[in-house]
Amino acid sequence: MSSTHTDESLPLLSAPADGVPDLVDTPHALAAAVESLAAGTGPVAVDAERASGIRYGNRAFLIQLRRRGAGTVLIDPEALPDLSSVDEALRDVEWILHASTQDLPCLAERGMTPDALFDTEVAARLLGYERFGLAAVVGETLGVRLAKEHSNVDWSTRPLPRDWLNYAALDVELLIPVREVLVEQLTDSGKAEFARQEFIHLLSFEPAVYSEPWRRVNGFGAVRSRRAMARVRSMWNLRDRLARQQDEAPGRILRDKVMVELAGARVKKPEDLRRIPGVSGMTKAALYRWYKAITDADALPEAQLPSRRSPDSPPQPQVDRAVIKTRLEAMKPVVNQIAQQLDIPHDLAVAPRLVKALAAGSTVGTPTEVERFLREHGAREWQIELTARALSEAGARADAAVTAAG
């Protein structure tokens, strides 16, 4: 968990109050930790450290927990991949996480899923905090500064250095008192119910799954022809296979920028690839692999080239783009005004993608119809109550203006 963006004038908290616990990396130690966590009281602070820029995938390489009566527990999920016993010990216990959508998927991979949660980042955003990284929230609520020098280290390293474990233990040490301050602030501001609904919604969070993930390559918008798209697809598939085999982050094998450059390059022989920055130092074997991926794509018949339109793209608008633009120009300020009145980010008042989808319909609809649309697409009841009527009325005004301009 990142601990960047904090007030350097605050007193530094550099060591856990109870010291750094031993790493739990044996079944015997895990059983003792589970017993201790089950006997603890109140919510449990949870965090996970990943190595997504270094290793393949997003799996956790360290899991930290802290509960009153149990202290801090640091678990090595590489040595203990099945943590369902920890999950069982924490049934019906509220989990405190910061930026929970980052950690929930990798915790679930290890058999850990909460029944209830409190997200300190979401709470801070609802409260209008200008900065809501962990360190900023800790500074704002508790008036201390977290050590941050190990926020971007390679957590797949074994053995884990003691000072790294010190950093990891600090990340969960303060989550329980931070939560207590945030709960009081949410109650005082009348936003406790907003937070409750947000946290329930987060329990069902699942990361986005794309049917054609190769289209997610950074810079893909510059790839114009279907033949060039086929090259990207072929190179992406090769890179993903190599990354999985080598347990290495795909970008360390071939950067997205290089892939996009190769998609449009003139290539008649493997050595031609060396003209692209980022390729020049490759071995002959590596050059041939990427050359073959490119030429395989070049040899495809027209019918097997990818479509210009992604299957994951939203449906084509039902109305003229000028109408959509007019509607958005009326609807966005309404959402912004509601957000400003509540002192929350506009994307928390209602997701921008839902506003865009409403604007692209044949009609924005009546307040009841907008309520139904928002509910069907995952908006929470507090968001619907605040925005449905305003969005409907703004859409109606925009359509009237289009008709009048006619």
TrEMBL record:
This is Ribonuclease D. Residues 225-304 form the HRDC domain. CDD domains: RNaseD_exo. InterPro entries: 3'-5'_exonuclease_dom, Exo_C, HRDC-like_sf, HRDC_dom, HRDC_dom_sf, RNase_D-like, RNaseH-like_sf, RNaseH_sf. It comes from the Bacteria. Signal peptide: none annotated. It comes from Brevibacterium daeguense. Coiled coil: none annotated.
